[in-house]
C-alpha cells in the first residue's frame, strides 16, 4: 500500500549536499541518531510539561519534520560514507521506538485528545517496528511497508497537532482519528509480517 516512505529517495536527494558537508566535517551517523532521539524527548517533554498550552502542539510538526530529516541523514551517512556499524544498527532501532514513545505518548495528557486512542496508537506503533525487525529473524530484509510506517505516523500526528493548535479539531473527533490510525497501524503489522514470510519463503 502507498506510504510516505516511498518518497524517501527524493527526500534524500534534497539532503545529499548537506550530508556530504556533514561527513566532510566529521559528523557521524551515530551522533545524528542520538541527536534525533534527544530532540524527540525534549519535544515530548514540553507537551507533558504544558499539556494545556497550544504552543507545544504548534511546534510538534516542525519537530517531526526535523526528526525525519535527521533519520534520513544518519542512514545516508551510514550507507554512503562507510559508517555502518553494529552499534549504529542498535541505536537506530532503539532510537526510533524511544522517539515515537517520547513524542506521541505525552499527547495523552492533552485535554483535547482522547488518551485511550493515543495509548493504543503508541502500543500498535511499537509492534509495527518490532514486526519490521522480526523479518530479519525469518531470513527476510528489514521491512518498512506501510501504510503506517514511521514517516506516515509523523505526518498524521503532525497534522493532528496542527489542527489542535489552530482549534480546528474537536476533542470528541480525536477518538475517531486515532481509531483510523490504529486500524491502519494493525494493517501495517499484517503487511510487514506477510511480506517478511513471503520473502523468506522465496529465499
UniProtKB/TrEMBL annotation:
Keyword Manganese part of the UniProt annotation: no
Pfam families, per database record: CDP-OH_P_transf
Membrane-spanning ranges: 32-51, 116-139, 151-169, 175-193
Keywords tagged on the record: Membrane, Transmembrane, Transmembrane helix
GO terms (BP aspect): phospholipid biosynthetic process
Top-level division of the source organism's lineage: Bacteria
GO-annotated molecular function: phosphotransferase activity, for other substituted phosphate groups
GO annotation, cellular component aspect: membrane
Gene3D superfamilies: 1.20.120.1760
Keyword Transmembrane set for record: yes
Protein's name in the database: Inner membrane protein YnbA
Source taxonomy: Bacteria, Pseudomonadati, Planctomycetota, Planctomycetia, Pirellulales
